[in-house]
Design a protein that fits this description.
seven-stranded mixed sheet; mainly beta
Length: 124
Amino acid sequence: QVQLVESGGGLVQAGGSLRLSCAASGLTFRGASMGWFRQAPGKEREFVALISWNAGNTYYADSVKGRFSISRDNAKSTVDLQMNSLKPEDTAVYYCTADSASWPGTDKRTYDYWGQGTQVTVSS
């Protein structure tokens, strides 16, 4: 059974930083593309960042480009999201996701597995 477990969420002031982590189990981590999505109340789940299986390629939503950084450790089967210069509009539940495709893209419907989410709240 594939499981993705996020951690690291919390409350932070605007301009601060937070690092989210996702631990994966039950899958061949090396062969999986990993990503992060987020969802605020009343909004659709939106793409945040994507990293290829070998970490050779990354892609970010325009709203977080230059502020967020995605990374992975295949030996530990983890993927992280470093969030800097946080803004109140970054407040959302952040979800870790995985897919077997080499480059699954930004559509949430293409991803096979999802974590339970971790809450990130940025105060003004």
